[in-house]
């Protein structure tokens, strides 16, 4: 594929994987936890490097998953002790992220791991960092990583489809029929963590947060059906990435930033024109009721 197609493919993989996983965060009203995890995985990356002295992707995934689960566990612990969830997320998010920044400055000064890179990323460099696969030839490492994580995400969602659905809509009923709600919760957070870190190197945390929240929130405005929402969210994530790339090309700006902006613009448009939850439809319905 050409240089441009690799970038589009990478962005589409990010939009698809983050969009599908983000649906569960939207349904569970845990959107801001995505922001927290996308930043606290930095601590996991640093710890993985300190322990292994390697930037190998496998170690990075293990570290990121551990940091995501640690974030979720501490937030859950604080929330169950009576502290409001938003306050718990704020305290854990800032503390663990700051600890990651400090550890970088102390132990990882001379490696390709820094705060600016983790936050912003640079998808334009993706096609140049390749590895050779049998029968396929040279393929960008980010594409291999993102594709592998997408397969894992889809496989786990299909295997635990009923459990994810019940624990998202009615956790009390799920617990009553014997589903281990907390275990399912941590499995989901693990998926969020590894999905986040798979996109870190190429697009940065800012776009990851946008793709974890905006496509799912947009799909939520368009349908009340669980399966349709998952499919729509993935499709919207792909559209946001493609539209953002061409917007960046036209205006000569950051590709990741343009993709995040495109996700916001699409959400705003849908919020205005959604047939059921849109601002315009609500206004017209109110006028109709007032007229009666």
Helix and strand composition category: mainly alpha
Number of helices: 12
Major sheet: size, sense and barrel closure?
A: 2 strands, antiparallel
CATH homology-level superfamily: ABC transporter involved in vitamin B12 uptake, BtuC
Runs in which pLDDT lies below 50 for 5 or more consecutive residues are none
Query: Which assembly state applies to the chains in this document?
Result: single chain
Per CATH, the architecture is Orthogonal Bundle
Strand content: under 5%
- Assign the CATH topology: ABC transporter involved in vitamin B12 uptake, BtuC
The domain tally reads 1
Number of strands: 2
Description:
By secondary structure, the chain is mostly helical. It has a single domain, classed as ABC transporter involved in vitamin B12 uptake, BtuC (Orthogonal Bundle), CATH 1.10.3470.10. The chain is built from twelve helices and two strands; from the N terminus they run αααααββααααααα. The protein has helices spanning 3-27, 31-52, 57-80, 85-107, 115-120, 141-159, 161-169, 171-176, 181-222, 226-251, 255-273, 279-291, and strands spanning 130-133, 137-140. A two-stranded antiparallel ribbon has the order 1-2. A hairpin with a 3-residue loop joins β1 and β2. α2 packs across α9. The longest helix is centred in the last third of the chain and has 42 residues, at 181-222. The radius of gyration is 20 Å and the shape is globular. It is a multi-pass membrane protein. Its main location: membrane. Belongs to the ABC-3 integral membrane protein family. This is Metal ABC transporter permease.
């Amino acid at each position: 594929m050409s240089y441009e197609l690799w970038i589009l493919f990478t962005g589409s993989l990010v939009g698809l994987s983050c969009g599908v996983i983000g649906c569960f965060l939207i349904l569970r009203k845990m959107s801001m936890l995505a922001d927290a995890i996308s930043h606290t995985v930095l601590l996991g990356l640093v710890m993985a490097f300190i322990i292994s002295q390697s930037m190998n992707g496998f170690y990075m995934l293990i570290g990121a998953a551990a940091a995501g689960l640690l974030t979720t566990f501490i937030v859950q612990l604080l929330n169950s002790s009576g502290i409001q969830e938003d306050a718990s997320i704020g305290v854990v998010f800032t503390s663990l992220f700051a600890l990651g920044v400090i550890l970088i400055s102390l132990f990882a000064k001379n490696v390709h791991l820094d705060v600016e890179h983790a936050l912003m990323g640079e998808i334009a460099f993706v096609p140049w960092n390749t590895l050779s696969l049998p029968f396929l030839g040279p393929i960008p490492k980010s594409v291999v990583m993102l594709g592998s994580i997408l397969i894992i995400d889809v496989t786990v969602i299909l295997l635990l489809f009923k459990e994810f659905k019940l624990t998202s809509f009615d956790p009390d009923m799920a617990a009553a029929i014997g589903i281990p709600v907390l275990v399912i919760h941590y499995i989901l957070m693990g998926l969020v963590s590894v999905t986040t870190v798979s996109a870190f190197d190429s697009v940065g945390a800012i776009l990851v947060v946008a793709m974890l929240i905006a496509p799912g929130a947009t799909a939520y405005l368009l349908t009340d059906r669980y399966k349709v929402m998952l499919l729509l969210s993935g499709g919207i994530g792909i559209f946001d990435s493609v539209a953002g790339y061409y917007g960046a090309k036209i205006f000569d700006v950051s590709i990741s930033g343009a993709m995040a902006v495109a996700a916001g613009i699409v959400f705003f448009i849908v919020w205005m024109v959604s047939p059921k939850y849109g601002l315009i439809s609500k206004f017209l319905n109110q006028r109709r009721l007032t007229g009666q």
